[in-house]
Write a structure and sequence with these properties.
The chain has ten helices and twelve strands. By secondary structure, the protein is α/β, with parallel strands linked by helices. Helix 4 packs parallel to helix 6, helix 5 packs across helix 6 and helix 6 runs parallel beside helix 7.
């Protein structure tokens, strides 16, 4: 039996804009079991990256609660928060932009040790070489600069840096979407191997359901600041209930598909979170919408054990 490493309750983040509120994240709750992956899938503008920034406390929430390793993240004093945060790291969508371009690969990976004043020069160098070996980057690149590496190698460096402080949770924010399809599987395999070897927990953010299928124990589908469906991976892919999830699955048959095309099969564009539709937020694009959907917001509820969905049809 796994224990929960992360519990998120009714998390909200509203950004003020022109006298209104942009409800980027609007009441999201979930838990993450230790050593497992929760995939969060949604279009750009759905709020999934805002969830990542809220969990890392890079931005303040409007309301809600995040418990990490049994501690309430938003109630901790600064010093304890710093210690706890070294257990959470992030891997970014664009590996090149996430690295310091003027620092060598070795120096980039060494940064977490320097910032946290860990080890002397020779100990840190040894650790950096170990990490490079762990993620499959040749030691020959120790003195190279990020621009001299391929996108896949840059992402491996980003992963090495994220692993430096031995975190328990890594938030992977679209870590393969900027990479060639042939490289994506290699990075996913590396992340899976690291998870097994180090009992890592991941939140894996993607806009493509195919990308998260193999790595995730649970998958949540997000739309305009809310989860619309969440279930164990096999249940979600074999028995999708929300029309949006079904459309996403129809649109993305495999990892080979271009993730950018994933949403073409869904009519229209995601509405602005500044003016979300009344009733069900998906009603402007849903081919099953009925009058009730335009005025009454569907409740997000458990319809099968562990399977949550928000839709009047279900
Ligand atoms: Fe479609 Fe209505 Fe279900 Fe929303 S509640 S997804 S509009 S059927």
């Amino acid at each position: 039996m796994h224990k929960n490493i992360l519990e998120v309750q009714d998390l909200k983040k509203y950004f003020p804009l022109s006298g209104k509120q942009v409800k980027a994240v609007d009441g999201v709750s979930f838990s993450l079991e230790e050593g497992t992956t929760l995939g969060i899938v949604g279009e750009s503008g759905s709020g999934k990256s805002t969830i990542a920034r809220l969990i890392l406390k890079l931005i303040e929430p409007t309301s809600g609660k995040v418990d990490f390793l049994g501690e309430s993240l938003y109630d901790l004093p600064q010093k304890e928060l710093r210690t706890l945060r070294s257990n959470m790291q992030m891997i970014f969508q664009n590996p090149y932009l996430s690295l310091f371009p003027h620092l060598s690969i070795g120096d980039n990976i060494e940064q977490p040790f320097i910032i946290n004043r860990l080890g002397n020069d020779s100990v840190r160098r040894e650790k950096v070489l170990e990490l490079m070996d762990l993620v499959g980057v040749s030691k020959d690149y120790y003195h190279a600069f990020p621009h001299e590496l391929s996108g896949g190698q840059q992402q491996r460096v980003g992963i090495a840096r994220a692993l430096a402080l031995n975190p328990k949770l890594i938030i992977c924010d679209e870590p393969v979407s900027s990479l060639d399809v042939s490289i994506q599987a290699q990075i996913l395999n590396l992340l899976e191997k690291l998870q097994k070897d180090r009992n890592l927990s991941y939140i894996f953010i993607a806009h493509n359901l195919a990308v998260v299928e193999h790595i995730s124990k649970k998958v949540a589908v997000m739309y305009l600041g809310k989860f619309v469906e969440c279930a164990d991976t096999a249940e979600l892919y074999n028995n999708p209930l929300h029309p949006y999830t079904k459309a996403l699955l129809e649109a993305v048959p495999s990892l080979e598909a271009d993730g950018g095309k994933a949403f073409e099969a869904i009519y229209g564009e995601i509405p602005s979170p500044l003016n979300p539709p009344k009733g069900c937020r998906f009603c402007t694009r849903c081919k099953y919408a009925k009058p009730e959907c335009l005025s009454v917001e569907p409740e997000y509820r458990e319809v099968n054990p562990g399977h949550f969905v928000a839709c009047h049809l279900v």
